[in-house]
Structures are given as C-alpha cells and as structure tokens.
Amino acid sequence: MKTVPVRSIQSKQNPRLKQLRHALAAPGALVGIEGPNLLEEALKAQLKLECIFVAEDETERLDGLKFDESTEVLALPRALLSAALATETPQTVAALVRPPEFSWADFLDLPHAPLIVILAGVQDPGNLGTILRSAEAFGATGVVALPGTVNAWNPKAVRASAGSLFRLPYLSSPADEAFARLHAAGIKIWTTAVHDAFSLDKAGLVQPTALILGNEGNGVPEAIAAEADATLTIPYPGPVESLNAAVAASILLYEASRQRAPKKGGRR
Questions:
Q1: Beta strand 93-98 with 72-76: parallel, antiparallel or unpaired?
Q2: 267 part of a folded domain
Q3: Tens digit of pLDDT for each residue in 133-189?
Q4: Which of 30, 57, 75, 256 would disulfide-bridge 205, Cβ 3.0–4.6 Å?
Q5: Residue 255 phi/psi, 5° resolution?
Q6: Where are the alpha helices (DSSP H) in the chain?
Q7: Domain extent for 227
Q8: Is residue 1 part of a domain?
C-alpha cells in the first residue's frame, strides 16, 4: 500500500476540522470517532474513512495502519485537536467516517433464527453503546432503534460500544414498519416488565426472537408493548425496583445465547 501524504493544518477554521466538530455534535452522513482503539476497530471493520486527524507530535501512531490512499490525513497541534473533540481525556487521533448501511435483509434473511434487540426510547448513550457491545458478544442478529432512541453515533455511545457499532447491523426504523416486518417474518416479540410476566428462565428464546427494551426511567411505552406477543421479566431476589437498561439487556441476551448454544453432540 502506498504511503499516504500527511498535510499540516494550524487553524481551527479548517473546513475538515469544522466537519469533525459537526459530526461529533450532530452525527449524520459523516460521523466522528476518537482515539486510536476506535480508529483501529473502524479499519478492521473496513469502514470508509474520509479523513484522519492526528496530533503532529504523534504521527507515528499511524505507522502500520492500512487505510485507503484516498483517505485524507491531517496533522495538527495537540491543543487544536483536543479542542475539537468530545472526550474529556485528550486523544491524539480522530477520524471522519462514513457509517455502515444496513437493511432489513441483514436482520431477517438469515440461515439461523434471528435474535433482534428493539430499542424503544433508550436515551442514555452509554447504555445504548453497552447494549450494542452485549448484543454482539451474545450473538444478536442486530439492533433496531425506534423513534426517541438516542443517536447511536453519539460519541459516548460509540465509545461504550467499543467497536461493536462498526460491525453489528443497526437500523433506525418507525415503529409501525418495524413491527409489521417482524410480525410478517414470524418473529416472536417479547416486551419486558417487572411484574405479571414470564420468568426469563421459562421463556423460550431459541425460536426467531425480538426483545423490546425501554427507556431507563419509564420502561417500554404502552403503545410499543402492545405490539409484543408476550411479556417476560428477569427474576432477582433483591429489593430494587428495576435494573439498568444495559444490565437488563445483557442478562436477556446472555440467556438467549445460553439457550441457543449447541448441546453436546452438536444438537440444540
């Protein structure tokens, strides 16, 4: 691979730096990522990197990284880069990235039973990123975000996902379209509740399954819960009223993964 030229910039008014600030504040067609770990994960996932920003005294961080020769590389003073980023801990590298695009086929046209997470108004970006990380870890097909859910490319969500957002199918969808597609595909939809529901250990999650997760404070909205085929709950002995959304998601996904794991002899 050819060596990509590095261009030096010194002004906060640089158009690419303005793009980075905007992409971090309002992710859209371009999104911003921060830090060497996320840069490496983006490259492994073969995302399209439009521009890489590196502190001028840390350009060796790019040595050995294989990115497309069309990627623009800008070196700038460390203070100028830090001022453009969202993290409190100073980072020496960042990038403008085109997010991956997924369709319903990535969720439903599979050789195995889908396991889909539906986010109904999850608003904390740290929780959303953690849910994505757990979803990938436990073999979920993907995550569908309904209106009212925080943007998954929020910098805090991206960091919490630890790269899972770059690989795991993720789709934003109106609720009516999402449920119409899931019902038509024969996906059993479970919502979550604290009381009057199937205990998680008694819920069959081997078949094609979708799990609805609600807002951290208010749970799943009634109109969304009404689309579910059944309700489940996570039994726990302590006196707390509810679990954190990301914790609950991780427990649900672990149980689904456990049930779906091949049994001895290769049979499920």
A1: unpaired
A2: no
A3: 999 999 999 999 999 999 999 999 999 999 999 999 999 999 999 999 999 999 999
A4: 256
A5: -65, -40
A6: 15-25, 36-44, 78-84, 105-108, 125-137, 155-161, 164-167, 175-184, 222-225, 245-260
A7: 105-260
A8: no
